[in-house]
UniProtKB/TrEMBL annotation:
The chain crosses the membrane at residues 6-24. Residues 44-154 form the Transglycosylase SLT domain. Keywords: Membrane, Transmembrane, Transmembrane helix. This is Lytic transglycosylase domain-containing protein. It comes from Caproiciproducens faecalis.
Length: 198
């Protein structure tokens, strides 16, 4: 009888532990999805697919740049969800053939900002083989990063940055890459950039 009671207690403890694990896991996932949300999903899916980008990366950049605030504006004059400067916006418009000519005010429109932000990311990933280098160029500019890559103290091979000289850019790249790890853990996307329900 004592052995039976012990077996029952062990079984009950195991069930309680198992239930606790699932409750904690579900709570953790709920909390993390609140911290790393998906906004503008239809636009992100469309533009990520059109530019052959991982949607998780697009969300990671938006979270780091504006925390999904379409009205965000930086001290450097970058605007909107993906924080594009008017000069960069002008340049990307020459790369993305469109019948519509947009003005700076259009950067506050999520569809426009995400479309051109994704195009910029795509251009940078075509130019730079390393994710951290491309993200550095998104933050500090192509000219700055090209100069870093020419400096043997910063880049031994002209492709990989041994370190990022600007603290702001270093922190930005770290934030985007951390976001990216979390978005990849939390969500799965199909080849159309749409989220796969789990």
């Amino acid at each position: 009888m004592k052995l039976f009671k012990k077996i029952l207690l062990v079984a009950a403890a195991a069930i309680i532990l198992l239930l606790g694990y699932f409750v904690l896991k579900r709570g953790y996932t709920f909390f993390m999805k609140r911290a790393y949300p998906l906004h503008y999903t239809q636009i992100v899916a469309k533009e990520a697919a059109a530019n052959q980008l991982d949607p998780a990366l697009v969300y990671s950049v938006m979270k780091a740049e504006s925390n999904f605030d379409p009205n965000a504006q930086s001290h450097a004059g970058a605007i909107g969800l993906m924080q594009m400067t008017p000069d960069t916006f002008e340049w990307v418009q020459t790369k993305l053939k469109s019948d519509t000519k947009y003005s700076n005010i259009d950067l506050y429109t999520p569809e426009v900002n995400i479309r051109y932000g994704c195009k910029l990311l795509s251009l940078l990933f075509e130019r730079y083989s390393e994710k951290a280098t491309a993200l550095s160029a998104y933050n500090a500019g192509i000219g700055t990063v090209n100069n870093w890559l020419k400096n043997p103290d910063i880049s031994k091979d002209g492709a990989v940055l041994e370190y990022i000289p600007y603290e702001e850019t270093r922190n930005y790249v770290d934030a985007v890459l951390k976001n990216y790890v979390n978005y990849r853990k939390l969500y799965q996307f199909n080849n159309k950039g749409e989220m796969i329900d789990d």
